[in-house]
Write a structure and sequence with these properties.
Length: 284
Amino acid sequence: MPTAVRCHHPVPREPAGRRCRAQGWARWLLLAAVALALLLVLLLVPRQAQSERLPDTVERVEPAIVSVATHQPARSPRLRHLGTGFAVADGRLVATNLHVLPDVLDRENQERLVVVTGSGRNTEVRSAERVAASQTHDLALLRISGTPLPALSLGDSDAVRTGERLAFTGFPIGMILGMYPATHRASVSARTPMALPAGHSRQLDERRVAQLRRNPPMVFQLDGTAYPGNSGSPLFRIDSGEVVGIINQVFVQGGREAAVGSPSGISYAVPSGQLRALIEGHRD
């Protein structure tokens, strides 16, 4: 009567034992390969799914994006792009950076602050008025004329994690190529103290510099390429479109031309919590 092969022999010395040991190793390798495949699926599928949702999110975000500009009838060109903004709250409030706005307007020559809505050839110029501002956080709110725009929702900026993938939409090089908003992806590299951009020395008074040294506001440092025209662009979550920050500056080595010709790939954004506070404190 043939002897049955027993694969649980502790020290196999016969050929049958070697076969059992080989079968055991094969099963172990198969299980390890399956586990590795499942791990890769768990790691890669969410990012792929998130990336696939971005086009749908951009379609919802773009109608809220505006160009912040000045308009002067006798000037050529009549419109001068200053930065980007986006509709919030009731759709007639536009958020942007304070440093985007001019200190004074040439009223004698009918210069006025405006926003340009729409895209391509289907655009509309609307009057705008500054109604609230935070110099500390480089934020401003504009009240615009006309019908409300589709407003963007503000997300929880405190919940943003280092390494999170986000996106922002705006006009990186102004309206040189027309009113076509561009979207870029960015990763959150860190939370870091903000150094506010200043157009001239008068904006850097002693009190302001001392405040920045004592308790500088924190901003998101981004591993993403933004340009000067992106100032005021909403930084939003790829899946939901919730705004968690506002692009307010780029790291440059050199002047404005260097920022366009040789971008550093490092940008900064003010957390949306600061914008939420400004909106809540605003009264018409």
